[in-house]
Every structure is written in C-alpha cells, then in structure tokens.
Amino acid sequence: MESSPRVPLEITVRFAETDMMGIVHHSAYVVWFEAGRIAWMATAGVPYAQVSAAGYNFAVTEINARYRTPIRFGEPVQVISRLTALRSRQVEFEYEVCHRDAGTLFATGHSRHICVDRDGRTVTIPQWVVEGMTAGIKRLSDE
After folding, report:
1. How far is CA 72 from CA 19, 21, 47, 76, in A?
2. Any domain includes 141
3. Domain assignment present for 1
C-alpha cells in the first residue's frame, strides 16, 4: 500500500507538556501521535470512537519517535499523520511534528497497531473499517 494522504492536526504546546528544561517532554510526542492517528481516522470517515464502540481497538505493538529539534511552551505545531499500511489485522501510521508556521521539522515517528476485540484477542479488522479507511484514502487523495 502506498502512503495515504497526510492529515494535519494543530496543537499549541501546553505548559504541562514541558519538562524542567522548558522543552516538550519526550512522552508528549506519543500522545500527539495518538491524537494524530485519531484525527486521520476521523478525517478519513472512520471515527475511532465508532470502531471502539463496536468492540474493536487498535492496540499499540510498536512505537518509535526520532527527536530532531526541541519545542518550547506556546509554540504552534502540526502533527501530520498518514496511514502507511492496512493489513488484515494490522495498521501502521507515520507522523511528522512540524512548526505550524515555519515548517521546522521537530520529530518523526511511526506506530504499529494490531486489531483486538473487547477481550484483547487479536482479530481481523472488520470489513466496514477496511472499506471506510480505503474509501477515505481515495476521497482524501481526490481533494
């Protein structure tokens, strides 16, 4: 699968996301990646809340972040997310965290997820989710 269209999510760095050095703490990026993934799914037309309400979740099996340039409190950032793999049981996303105005690349990352049911057992991604994400990719590509 080719990478899907990029979906931006704007965030202004909150004070609580910074450390004693006044820069964004490394753990905030994981939260931002998740917010970006949720935003990508909503923009594609498959809200994650709908998937979860139907009894399915995408459990994280791998997450990676590469930090390039520090970010400080109050800076406007964009988390740009894209789906890079959609398999029968697994999805993968890539992320870029950039300055919203200057375009400075702060960090990159990726995450892998396995579809699980309410009991945490690995299951096939429901067909309606796959079809919705595929249709979302096409629609976003055409925009």
Report:
1. 9, 9, 31, 9
2. no
3. no
What's the pLDDT tens digit per position in 29-71? 999 999 999 999 999 999 999 999 999 999 999 999 999 999 9
Instruction: Write the CATH number for 58.
Output: 3.10.129.10
Domain count, the chain: 1
Q: Which residues belong to the active site?
A: 19
Instruction: Output the six-digit token pair for 83.
Output: 């789906």
Residue 29 · residue 70 · CB < 8 Å: no
Alpha carbons within 13 A on the beta-carbon side of 41: 20
Q: Specify the pTM.
A: 0.94
Letter for the amino acid at 64? N
